[in-house]
Amino acid sequence: MQHRIIVLGAGYAGTIAAGRLARRLRREDASVTLVNAEPDFVERVRMHQVAAGQDLRPRPLDKMYAGTGVTLRIAKVTAVDPDRKTVSLTDGELEYDTLVYALGSGWNSHDVPGAAEHAYEIASRPGARKLHTRLAALGPGATVLVVGGGLTGIEAVTEIAESRPDLDVALATSGELGDWLSAKGRAHLRKVAGRLGITVHENAPVTRVAPDHAELADGRTIPATVTVWTGGFAVHPIAAATTLTLAPTGQIIVDDTMRSVSHPDVYAIGDAAQAMGPGNKPLRMSCATGGPMGWQAADAIVARLTGGKLPHVPLRYFNQCISLGRREGLIQYVTADDRAVSAALTGRFAAVYKELICKGAAWFSSNPTFGLPSSRRSITQPITEMHTPAQQPARQD
Fold first, then answer.
1. pLDDT confidence of residue 374
2. Which domain holds residue 173?
3. Contact indicator for 289, 315 with CB cutoff of 8 Å
4. Are 150 and 167 part of one and the same domain?
5. How do residues 75-106 score in pLDDT, each as one tens digit?
6. Which of 35, 226, 251, 362 could serve as a FRET partner for 62 with CA atoms 20 to 30 Å apart?
7. Which pLDDT value is given to residue 365?
8. Which protein family is it in (predicted)?
9. Which residues pair with 72 in a beta bridge?
């Protein structure tokens, strides 16, 4: 009887995990089913480009997994029951022996009044396409306000300003512009924003979004024909309805092998999981985190099933890659726990570097079995041995 592995979500983490599992386990011993709501892989880190009207290369999942042994199920997940070990879909139900939960995250309005009704989001492809349609309809001089001064907000506002120099583009951030960057990084960011004609509102938390303006905590208003909300991400709500142990963020708490601390048959990766990195700090939601988490989970599952050595590779950061339109970029080097150091790359070379990183992430997700040995391993461990409780991680006070 085959060991049934189900992977939920075909983002950066899920695509890598599914391909890696199928390539490393014998098909006679294990089946790998990948469930995704859409039939193709979405380059989420490029949604600001979609909003600006740029076409991305299609990456159909059936072509990505042709010949790998992965079974695709194009359906929306409606519920997960980790006690019954079932997954409910829009078109039926699946049973699993091992579950890899990689449903990711969406935009987070933080319950700011009017944000959900009047603002546009770019955390999803439908959202980015909707924003593109709206931007394309704007005439010269129309005002566009991007709310949120993190990586997504900075990439969105610079992309829009570069592609539509006829618009009045502004950014509202609750702190200082690029306040987590090095002095060199902050200076370059301000330089590019000035060159693109972006009005920056610092220390300006938005408390309400209206159809034609945004209100700030200090009572000021900023005119906005279009408001783009990039104020953070919220994890997929499915996990909150389960008995899985969750962090306050709604993420599934996992150990260093990406295994749930409460349900050893469940692994969680990408934005859906809270894993601890260097300094016992939670890893941030990002493509840079999701890919390595997918590798770690797949290798841990294979090791436990086949009696191999468990991977304990520390997950760490090296840099933050920020696109500032198509011609400018910023590569901020960081410590292992993601704190900026003085070194940074800027300008055209940084833009090329960021583009290579994006292409590389998409390529590895689209070629999930690259570099893996062709010989598959047999399952040797009895199922009962797989189900020992996972080790509880250190307290996260």
1. 59
2. 111-229
3. yes
4. yes
5. 999 999 999 999 999 999 999 999 999 999 99
6. 251
7. 80
8. Belongs to the NADH dehydrogenase family.
9. 34
Q: Which residues pair with 80 in a beta bridge?
A: 87
Shared domain for 45 and 128, answered yes or no, is: no
Which positions of the chain have pLDDT values less than 50?
383-397
CA–CA gap between residue 169 and residue 150 (Å, rounded): 16
Q: Of 213, 229, 245, at which residue does a domain stop? A: 229
Q: Which two tokens stand for residue 165?
A: 């120099």
The answer to whether residue 343 sits within a structural domain is: no
Final residue of a structural domain among 174, 208, 229: 229
pLDDT at 367 (0 to 100): 75
Could you tell me if 138 and 218 lie in one domain? yes
**CB of 15 closer than 8 Å to CB of 65:** no
CA distance 63 to 68: 10
64 phi, psi to nearest 5 deg? -60, -40
172 and 73 within one domain: no
Exposure string for 205-234, b = 16+ CB within 10 A, e = fewer: bbeebeeebbbbeeeeebebbbbbbbbbbb
| The pLDDT of residue 388 | 45
Show the tokens assigned to 72.
């695709």
Q: What does the pLDDT read at residue 232?
A: 86
pLDDT at residue 364, as a whole number: 81
Tell me what pLDDT residue 372 has: 63
Tell me the two tokens of residue 291.
């890919």
Question: Is residue 183 situated within a structural domain?
Answer: yes
Query: What pLDDT score was predicted for residue 392?
Result: 41
Q: Quick one: which H or E segment has residue 6?
A: strand 3-8
Type of residue numbered 216:
L
pTM to 2 decimals?
0.91
pLDDT in the model for residue 380: 79
Residue 206, strand partner residues:
216
